[in-house]
From TrEMBL:
Transmembrane segments: none annotated. SUPFAM superfamilies: UROD/MetE-like (SSF51726). This is Methionine synthase. Gene3D superfamilies: 3.20.20.210. Keywords: Metal-binding, Zinc. It comes from Microbacterium lacus.
Length: 345
C-alpha cells in the first residue's frame, strides 16, 4: 500500500439494532433463516460504507456475521460438543460455561469464506479478516480428548491454516489472528504459542497480523486492568519472540492504556497496528489526541510501518460513538500524514 499511515480497525463494530441487541457483547441474533443471512449481509454493507465514509483504508467486516470472535469459529468444527458444557476460567480472569472437546477436531467445511467473498465484492480497497488464534481458542474450551493444551493448539493451527488459505483465495489481503491469551500465558507463548501461530499463518501470501490486547471494555477486563499497576509491561515478554517470528504485523493497545510506548521498539522491523482509539470509553477522541499517540509511536516505529488503528473491537459501544471514533482515527492519522508528507500547493 502506498498511503503513508493507512488506517485500519482491529475488528468488530456495533451491530444494527434490528440484527442484534445493541451495546451487548455476544448478543443473540434477532432474525433467523434466510432473513438472518440477508440481515448479516446488509449489516456488513453498512460496516463497509461507514469505514469508507470515515476514510479508513483497510476495510474489515466489522464482525457483523459473527456472534463471538472465538465461539462462532469453533461452532463450525467437528469434535466439539456444545451441549456438554463445563465452567472454566477464561484467561485466568472470569468464569464461563464453555463447550467440550470430545474427539478429534476438524474443519469439514469453510467457516467464513463465503462472508469474506461477500466483503470482497463490496470494496476495491484492501480487506482484512480476523480469526481467533490457536491459544485463544483452546482457552475458550474444556478439553476431554487431547488432554494437552499444546496438542490441541497444534490441531487448531492446522485448521486455521486451511481456513486462512481459503480466505486468501477469496481475495482477503490481510489475515489477522486474535491472541489476547498472549497477554496472559507467557510460558506457553514462549514454548509453543508463537510456533502454533506461525503454523496457522504458514504459506500465506496475504499479510499476517497478530492482535494482542487487554480486551473489550467489559467489567471483568477493566477489573483485571486495575490490578496490573501503573505500567503494563506484558508485551515485553512476547514482543521479542514476535519480532523474530514470521508474522508480518503486530496489533497492540496503546491510547489510554498503561503500556509504555518504548515497548514498541521491541518489534522494530515489523509493521505496527497501533491502537490510537480507546474502545473501553465512550469519550470520542479528538483528532489531535489521535495524532499525539501516533507521533509518540514514531520514535519507535518507522513511519512506513505504522498503521493507526483501534485498541480492540468496538462492538459494545453505542453506534454513534463508534462512528465518531472512526472519524477521529482517520482525521488524526491525516494530521500526522500531512506533517510527514505535506500536501502539494
Ligand atoms: Zn482485542
Amino acid at each position: 500500500m502506498t498511503t503513508l499511515l493507512p488506517t485500519s480497525i482491529v475488528g468488530s463494530l456495533p451491530k444494527p439494532s434490528w440484527l442484534a441487541q445493541p451495546e451487548t457483547l455476544w448478543s443473540p441474533w434477532k432474525l433467523e433463516g434466510d432473513a438472518l443471512t440477508e440481515g448479516k449481509q446488509d449489516a456488513l454493507r453498512i460496516a463497509v460504507h461507514e469505514q469508507r465514509r470515515a476514510g479508513i483504508h483497510v476495510i474489515s467486516d466489522g464482525e457483523q456475521t459473527r456472534q463471538h470472535f472465538v465461539t462462532t469459529f469453533i461452532e463450525h468444527l467437528s469434535g466439539v460438543d456444545f451441549e456438554q458444557r463445563e465452567t472454566v476460567r477464561i484467561r485466568n480472569r472470569y468464569d464461563a460455561s464453555v463447550p467440550t472437546v470430545v474427539g478429534a477436531v476438524g474443519r469439514e467445511k469453510p467457516v467464513f469464506v463465503d462472508d469474506a467473498a461477500f466483503l470482497r465484492t463490496q470494496t476495491d480497497q484492501p480487506i482484512k479478516w480476523a480469526l481467533p488464534g490457536p491459544m485463544t481458542m483452546i482457552d475458550t474450551l474444556y478439553d476431554r480428548h487431547y488432554k494437552s493444551r499444546e496438542k490441541l493448539a497444534w490441531e487448531f493451527a492446522t485448521i486455521l491454516n486451511q481456513e486462512a488459505r481459503e480466505l486468501e483465495a477469496a481475495g482477503v489481503d490481510i489475515i489477522q489472528f486474535d491472541e489476547p491469551a498472549f497477554n496472559v500465558f507467557f510460558d506457553d507463548v514462549r514454548d509453543w504459542g508463537v510456533a502454533t501461530l506461525e503454523r496457522a499463518a504458514e504459506g500465506l501470501r496475504a499479510e499476517t497480523v497478530v492482535h494482542i490486547c487487554y480486551g473489550y471494555g467489559i467489567k471483568a477486563n477493566t477489573d483485571w486492568k486495575a490490578t496490573l499497576g501503573s505500567e503494563w509491561r506484558q508485551y515485553e515478554q512476547t514482543f521479542p519472540l514476535l519480532q523474530r517470528s514470521a508474522i508480518d504485523v503486530v496489533s497492540l493497545e496503546s491510547h489510554h492504556s498503561h503500556v509504555p510506548m518504548e515497548l514498541v521498539e521491541l518489534i522494530r522491523g515489523k509493521k505496527v497496528m497501533l491502537g490510537a482509539i480507546d474502545v473501553a470509553s465512550t469519550m470520542i477522541e479528538t483528532p489531535e489526541e489521535v495524532a499525539d499517540t501516533i507521533r509518540k509511536a514514531l520514535a519507535y516505529v518507522d513511519a512506513g510501518d505504522l498503521v493507526p488503528s483501534t485498541n480492540c473491537g468496538m462492538a459494545p459501544l453505542p453506534r454513534d460513538v463508534a462512528l465518531g471514533k472512526l472519524a477521529a482515527l482517520s482525521a488524526g492519522a491525516r494530521i500526522v500524514r500531512d506533517e510527514l508528507d505535506p500536501p502539494a500547493g
